[in-house]
Amino acid sequence: MIVSVQLEKQDQKSKDKGSKSSFEMDSDLWLTKDIRGVEEQNVC
Prior knowledge:
By secondary structure, the chain is mainly beta.
């Protein structure tokens, strides 16, 4: 699964188009229920 997040914020007081800030992030996630040996690693 690839998760993409995109945020953009504009200054609400000045409404100036030059006062925007943005943030972008992509993250790869590997999700599964069955992995041999995982129960040995989760000893905590």
